[in-house]
UniProtKB/TrEMBL annotation, chain A:
Domain ABC transmembrane type-1: residue ranges: 115-346
Membrane topology: Multi-pass membrane protein
Name of protein: ABC transporter permease
Family, similarity comment: Belongs to the binding-protein-dependent transport system permease family.
Keywords: Cell membrane, Membrane, Transmembrane, Transmembrane helix, Transport
Spans through the membrane: 25-46, 121-142, 154-177, 223-242, 277-298, 319-338
Domain of life (superkingdom): Bacteria
Automatic annotation (TrEMBL), chain B:
Record-linked PROSITE patterns: ABC_TM1
GO CC annotation, single: plasma membrane
Gene3D superfamilies in the cross-refs: MetI-like
Keyword hit for Metal-binding: no
GO biological process: peptide transport; protein transport; transmembrane transport
Protein name listed in UniProt: ABC transporter permease
Matching SUPFAM superfamilies: MetI-like
Record organism: Limobrevibacterium gyesilva
Family affiliation: Belongs to the binding-protein-dependent transport system permease family.
InterPro entries: BP-dependent_transpt_permease, MetI-like, MetI-like_sf, OppC_N
Amino acid sequence: MNVAALATPSAHGWVRQIAGPVHRVLKVLFSVLLTFLGLTCVTFVIGRVIPIDPVLAIVGDKAPPDVYARVRAEIGLDLPLPVQYWRYLMKVLHGDFGNSVITSQPVLADLLHVFPATLELSLLALIIGVIFGVPIGVIAATHRGRWQDQVIRFGSLLGYSMPVFWLGLVGLLAFYAKLGWVEGPGRLDVGFDDIVPTVTGLIVVDSLIAGEHDVFVNALSHLVLPASILGYLSLAYVARMTRSFMLSQLRQEYVLAALAKGLSPFRVVWVHALGNAWVQLITVIALTFGSLLEGAVLTETVFAWPGLGLYMKNSLFNADLNAVLGGTMLVGVVYIGLNMLSDLLYPLVDPRARESS
Amino acid sequence: MSDVTLRADLGHWRGWLLDQAPGSRWQARLGRWYRAWLGFRRNGLAMTGFGVVLLLVGIAIFAPLIADREAATLQVLTQRLEPASWQHWFGTDELGRDIYARVVFGSRITLTIVALVSAIVVPVGLGIGLPAGYFGGMVDAVLMRITDIFLAFPRLVLALAFAAALGPGIENAVIAIALTTWPPYARLARAETLTRRRAEFIEAAELQGASHLRILLTQIVPLCLPSVIIRLTLDMAGIILTAAGLGFLGLGAQPPAPEWGAMVSSGRQVLLDQWWVATIPGMAIFITSVGFNLLGDGLRDVSDSRAG
């Protein structure tokens, strides 16, 4: 942790300036590498545990023993486990997750096809969570112990106690079926399919680029309910963490000094204290985004949203193990990437982390 | 008259519990618990959570007394999708089963999952965290690397992959959830061990010739347990939600078991016309998880105020 101490005492000037960050980056990369290897180990083991015999799946149960043995050797199941793992790792590194049984396409192509839908959903949810969650958390902190704080604390507790799939159903029932404020399940109405050329994969963005106003409105109307529901969950977490970070900032002496100097309390809270709290919030937001990807699995099932979650769920029930493991790997890699990003960003926004521990 | 003696008796016990100079180890320990309880009792929300959890446990234990076991699985196809009535308090589902009975008996499944996951997660977490903190060095580095790897995984997705590989069912759901829940406990146990490792009473035990195992089990584990238990209470809502999520996806308890998540899922088809089939079991999940969260928050507050 103590990066400055690791630079040799005789090192001066730029050497010392460079050594700290470089060491830090290397450390982060090393831990990312280990975690990635761990992830592949786990998916490899899952692939071994599964009670389906992949050889039987190819040759059928009436195949003579020699055919069985030949196919078994062809797919490399007769090799020692470490060798099999090595082969698996090499394939994964080349982006080869095998073919999907249902779509008979390479799993990677499938994943790249469905991932933008999930990204669209979870990005909007994250934006909702941060835009509302941070101010709410600040208000709770500045009104500590008063009714505003109690209401916000209870409201966010309800948020992270909520089964997201149930909230989704209740939302559909209320806002789609009864009130008719939003569109129902799916990403677009049937009539709007395939109008907009794919640029980013996010239909809301693509329709704006193409200037298709109707498509944009329809897509947004489909998106807003699932995104709000996921957003509420992340809002609850973001608000709670903002509150506790702000409380620890507001206790510091610089706040008192700023107030004593005659700065307006508004400025001290929202600019000075919140400015410092952002440093810690970055990690929280990165983790929130990871958990949104998870929440998307359930939300997509409820809203028939054609993203990664629905893809994994459907693959699961068709015993399409390649697709399930590919999806797990993708979510895992995004997760690890987010962790790495927040580790690397931390010293950039916090000068203290750059200097020493 | 008996009321007076009872009150005097209680006052006596109170004095004994709050005694500043306890005469025995047990008196000190009970006194500490009693003070924590006094602090906890003042927290209205936490008491609500405690009440909800007690109620849930009560419902699970006395399920056969308050609901008809038969009705939970009995399919009466002539009474499909009936709204709430005196006969069926929460209505009936798509197979004519009584939703009230199913929700009541479903509490047993939920609590079983929570209990089993806890029974796996705490020993595993302690088993990895304690040696890491106690021995340090290579042991620590290796064990914590493994922990970090599991900590970096998305929980539900990994549980999903495990459940897919092991096949659907309660046991496998429990294993899958446990596999993704233990890492924070290992970290917690390690941190607690590190703060106590150099304490004088540990050194005293070492000088008396106690083995490492004995020191870990008799000196360090009891000190770790309070924070582990608080963490567990806070985690229980998450465990319930993950289990319900797996059930909703069809990977938890299998039909006809009255698992709440699976019940929500089966009610989806009739959501627009018979809303109660999906929403009532969901409400049960929600209330349970709120209860555990309130209880956990309250316990944490009590332990924090004790610490400083």
